[in-house]
Specification:
The complex is a heterodimer of chains A (478) and B (565). By secondary structure, chain A is of the alpha+beta class. Helix content of chain A is 28%, strand content 27%. Chain A is built from twelve helices and 16 strands. Chain A starts with a strand and ends with a strand. Chain B is of the alpha/beta class. In chain B, 42% of the residues lie in helices and 12% in strands. Chain B has 21 helices and eleven strands. In chain B, a hairpin with an 8-residue loop joins strand 3 and strand 4. In chain B, helix 1 packs across helix 2 and helix 18 packs antiparallel against helix 19. Chain B is globular. The chains are: A alpha+beta (478), B alpha/beta (565). Chains A and B meet through strand 13 and strand 14 of A and helix 9 and helix 21 of B.
């Protein structure tokens, strides 16, 4: 592999055969070609390497959700608490090694109590930390040379020495790193994916590939997760299913809910919807050998006592419907109207993504206005998004409309109620507080024409605000 | 067509009215109303300002006219016709809006006579005594006990907030002999309060014949005609006339933004989140007779009724003359004679039988002056207090200070300690006939024992005739800027920075130069808006507080003048 390094084309990596011929990384390409004329050379593609590393990490997630990339060639897996699936850590390492070999990758695996010690052991192919050379301290060439001159060649040599003089001579950083390597300090790794709150998994000795089996497994996992959620008094907002194929591919499905839930049946319905909605159907390949269900986001959900006569909880049913539609159509496409406290008619309702968290909204919520029995409605059934301009004959000034023309049809007004005067929201314009600077006051009239149709008109602007106010039709009572 | 606006809510309805009472009076004059009535929520504290504003109006109009003539280059003289034009043709009526805590709709009460005023203030006192400082808890039954000589306008809605009651009401057990209540006995059987205006009319109409009205307004809310028809129908059933009012919350339409801001301050929210708490339109201002006639064209008698209402009222604040308590003057003496006796006796005691010429002359001048201006009571009351303090064992330290030290009479009464023999005293510094005010005699009492003095006053005059004067705390520039900034939704760091530009607590508002110094751009519309609205809020009343040591003593029941808290 070659890449441009320090102005010249150099070798970035060599395979074992090349090593055998005496080529090393960092050597100039010209020199390499001189030694081995028929050298096979490929461009170094760091991005592809990183992607491959990521893909490998995905596969490693079958062992533990806490994986970290150590580019260019390393992976750190925190298997605390996960080894029991395989019996012990050594067997897990063997399984991992076997898996990598199947993909044609050679790897060095090392176990350690802390990330640093494991990494050092793997890098230098040592069995014990005491065998690791001092270069693992990452102190710089000068420090390494000085250590070697002092006769300290491995970490084992350093371990028995008192620390203070080392710190004085070589710096504090070296001593800190030494402590880490000797498993005295244990910094946590930062996993690629945030750790889920709950995860339940099912292994298969024989990989399964039939959809029914997969769904049955997921159902069982959902039941387990629901139990765990119940114990914690929580409900999940997001559920992720990871399907690990035996050849290393990982497929992921995610389902979001608007309100926290731990209802396994509801979850299954949503998952089925999700699977149906996939653009490419699930391809099990040679079969899945591990299926895992994770709950990354959970919220408090109190236990609700079921009543003696179970009624349908309309709020919960509506939320469930919204979740199903959102899974099928996409969360952004399912929207809901909320009432808002505003006197301006077109601002009195707010359209929002249905699944969004309404409880935390920062606009003043309102109840939908209730009609007074025996009186005509104050607001039209249908409100136009843009008020339509009309020509009106009305008394001057501020008289009621007597007739109006809309879409080339003249309507004679027989009954009127109004005006309903709505002043502009002056605070939405910076200079609106001063007289004459705000927008115009509207006078709304509910009119009925000679054919019995009812309309909602308004005059935009009072006669002392604007010289020639215009009239508009804002809605119809139909 | 003439019209009187009777339901004005001024800034003395704390954080509900957006105009000071003087603005209402000025607007009423400008619109040519026949009368203007200020009726604040459970208080009469605003009426004095309005009354004064009306009294000052002719002078102000005259000076404005003279200034205009000067600018126009005309001779600075007013003709008789012009002088007459400066005299306002409007009456001022003092009343209060009774807001009840038991669900009863608001009722606006105007006293028809001096007795009625006493009833109103006593009613408000009953409500104040029940609540913590500054609040008032009124029940419908309280009104029933104080109905005499009150003209009532029932409003078809209630505006009460939750009020806080005293945990243990203060000692105010002064009871008069029970006055016979002219209410028929069936009223006593009903114990629940009326929850809507129809019930109020049903209860009060038979009892309060001829003095009950239903106040109706049209604010262009879309159902005006329908509602008016309903009001008329129900009121007719009870024989109660309709009274047209615009129920103003501010004097001119331009003050609607300020009203929205004070609503936000009252509710503790920002203007963006206030929602339906704000009025939908800006119609609640003082309208002219023509406008009201147009609004009530379906019901013109409601507009005419306002003038009839005003004609029923014979009470004016002039009638509230101060009456001094009699205690400091022993029986058989007149105040002036008793004062003279005390003064001459003290003078002879101090200077001997032959008084120095200087002393004699000053005593004679001062006593003559006091006699003409009728100020004897002031001196006697103060002397009485000082004597009590000095008679205690051990004596309570007290001393007069300030301009009172310029008076020989004060010295001889033992109030001050500046000897006129050795010093030159300027009596005119103390009081003169130019200033129409009574003398201001400040006496400092030993701080730790001031309670004893206060208890003495209460014992001597009774709790119903002595009270500590209340002052109303107004918005200062700092608090105004802070509150308006919060209401506009500005973050705390901006409001604190703005507040720091205000110089001291008595400045008149954020100065433009200081704004620039603090890093604000005065052209920035947000800053300009904050500045403009804060300037309007400055000088608005904020809440009640206790005056530092000022007592009011009266002859008759004190709560028949102002209200108690």
């Amino acid at each position: 592999m070659v890449e441009k390094q320090r102005g010249a084309m150099r070798l970035a990596a060599c395979d074992p055969a090349a090593h055998a011929l005496g080529l090393t990384a960092g050597m100039a390409l010209a020199d390499a070609r001189a030694r081995v004329p028929d050298l096979a050379v490929f461009d170094h593609d760091p991005v592809a390497d990183l992607n491959l590393l990521g893909w490998l990490a995905d596969g490693c997630e079958r062992y533990t959700p806490a994986c970290m990339l150590v580019p260019p060639q390393g992976l750190l897996l925190d298997i605390t608490g996960c080894e029991h699936v395989f019996g012990d850590a050594a067997r897990l390492a063997k399984d991992l090694h076997a898996r990598f070999s199947r993909h044609g990758l050679s790897c060095r695996i090392a176990l350690g109590r802390t990330p640093d010690s494991a990494q050092a052991k793997a890098k230098y192919a040592a069995r014990a930390i005491s065998d690791v050379p001092v270069e693992a301290l990452d102190g710089g060439d000068k420090v390494h040379k000085a250590l070697r001159r002092a006769g300290l060649r491995s970490i084992g040599d350093l371990a028995v020495r008192p620390r203070k003089p080392l710190a004085a001579r070589f710096g504090k950083a070296v001593v800190v790193r030494l402590a880490r390597l000797l498993e005295e300090e244990d910094p946590r790794i930062t996993p690629r994916r945030s750790l889920p709150i709950i995860h339940v998994a099912q292994n298969f000795a024989e990989p399964i590939s039939r959809t029914n089996d997969v769904l049955a497994t997921i159902e069982m996992l959902a039941g387990n997760a629901a139990l765990q959620l119940q114990e914690r008094g929580q409900g999940g907002r997001r559920f992720e299913i990871c399907l690990f194929r035996s050849d290393g591919h990982v497929a992921r499905l995610a389902v979001d809910t608007g309100t926290p839930t731990r209802d396994a049946a509801l979850l299954m319905r949503l998952i089925r919807e999700r699977i149906d909605a996939l653009s490419d159907p699930l391809d099990p390949g040679f079969g899945y050998d591990l299926i895992r269900l994770e709950v990354p986001i959970a919220e408090v959900l109190a236990n609700v006592q079921v009543g003696l006569e179970t009624k349908i909880d309309t709020d919960a049913a509506a939320a469930a419907l919204i979740d199903r539609l959102s899974v099928r159509l996409g969360a952004e496409r399912v929207r809901q109207f909320h009432a808002r406290q505003s006197h301006i008619p077109e601002r009195a309702a707010l359209e929002r993504v249905a699944q969004s968290d309404v409880a935390k909204a920062d606009w003043p919520k309102a109840d939908w206005p209730k009609p007074v029995p025996g009186e005509p409605a104050m607001r039209p059934f249908r409100l136009f998004e843009t008020p339509q301009p009309i020509e009106v004959t009305a008394g001057f000034p501020e008289g009621e409309p007597r007739s109006f023309r809309w879409r080339r049809h003249v309507h004679r007004v027989t009954r009127v109620e109004g005006p309903e005067r709505i002043s502009p929201e002056w605070w939405r314009h910076p200079r609106g507080y001063a007289p004459g600077n705000g927008s115009l006051t509207r006078d709304y009239y509910r009119v009925e024409d000679n054919e019995g149709r009812r309309f909602w008109l308004f005059r935009r602007g009072l006669y002392d605000e604007i010289e020639r106010p215009l009239w508009y039709l804002h809605g119809i009572f139909a | 067509m003439s019209y009187a606006e009777l339901a004005c809510t001024s800034s003395y309805s704390f954080l509900r009215g957006a105009s000071p009472p003087s603005d209402y009076v000025a607007e009423g004059i400008r619109r040519g109303l026949t009368a203007i009535g200020i009726a604040d929520r459970n208080t009469v504290s605003g009426v004095v300002r309005a009354w004064k504003a009306l009294g000052d109006a002719p002078d102000e109009a005259r000076s404005a006219l003279l200034a205009a003539k000067r600018d126009a280059g005309e001779p600075e003289q007013l003709t008789e016709a012009e002088k007459a034009a400066c005299e306002p043709n409007i009456r001022f009526l003092a009343g209060s809006r009774l807001v009840f805590s038991d669900g009863t709709p608001d009722i606006i009460a105007y006293p028809a006579t001096r007795q009625g005023w006493g009833n109103l203030t006593r009613l408000l006192t009953v409500g104040n005594m029940r609540a913590t400082k500054g609040s008032c808890i009124l029940k419908f039954d309280d009104l029933r006990d104080h109905l005499d000589d009150l003209l009532l306008i029932v409003m078809p809605y209630a505006t009460a907030d939750a009020e806080e009651a005293h945990k243990s009401p203060p000692l105010y057990a002064f009871k008069e002999t029970a006055k016979p209540i002219a209410a028929p006995s069936h009223l006593k059987l009903v114990s629940t309060a009326p929850q809507d205006w129809e019930s109020v009319l049903r209860r009060l109409a038979p009892v309060h014949v001829g003095k009950l009205w239903l106040g109706v307004s049209t604010h262009h809310r879309g159902k005006d005609k329908r509602q008016l028809a309903r009001y008329r129908q129900v009121a007719n059933a009870f024989d109660v006339p309709l009274l047209a009012t615009n129920d103003p919350l501010y004097a001119t339409r331009d003050q609607r933004p300020l009203h929205d801001i004070i609503t936000c301050i009252r509710m503790g929210t920002t203007i963006q989140k206030a929602g339906f708490a704000l009025e939908a339109n800006a119609e609640r201002y003082i309208k002219s007779a023509d406008d009201m006639a147009h609004l009530f064209h379906a019901c013109p008698e409601a507009v005419a009724e306002t003038e009839r209402f005003a004609a029923h009222i014979h009470f004016d604040l002039e009638q509230l003359k101060y009456e001094y308590p009699h205690e400091p003057v022993p029986g058989g003496w007149t105040p002036d004679d008793w004062l003279a006796h005390l003064v001459w006796t003290a003078a002879h005691e101090r200077y001997g039988a032959e008084l120095p010429e200087k002393i004699r002359k000053s005593i004679e001048t001062e006593l003559a002056f006091i006699r003409t201006e009728k100020f004897a009571y002031y001196f006697l009351t103060v002397h009485d207090l000082v004597k009590f303090a000095r008679d205690q064992k051990p004596p309570i330290l007290c001393q007069g200070r300030g301009s009172a030290a310029n008076s020989t009479v004060c010295f001889l009464l033992g109030v001050t300690s500046v000897d006129p023999l050795t010093n030159t005293l300027l009596f005119s510094r103390f009081i003169s006939s130019d200033r129409k005010e009574p003398p201001d005699i400040d006496v400092d009492f030993e701080h730790e024992r001031r309670e004893e003095v206060m208890q003495y006053i209460y014992r001597r005059y009774g709790r119903h005739r002595a009270a500590i004067a209340a002052t109303i705390i107004h918005y200062r520039p700092r608090s105004a800027v802070r509150e308006v900034g919060k209401a506009l939704g500005l973050t705390e760091d901006i409001t604190t920075r703005m507040v720091s530009t205000v110089w001291g607590s008595f400045g008149s508002g954020p100065d433009e130069r200081r704004l620039v110094e603090a890093g604000f751009d005065p052209d920035n519309p947000e800053i300009a808006r904050l500045k403009a609205l804060s300037e309007q809020l400055i000088k608005f009343p904020r809440h009640l507080s206790q005056h530092v040591g000022g007592f009011i003593l009266t002859e008759n029941r004190l709560d028949e003048r102002p209200q108690f808290h």
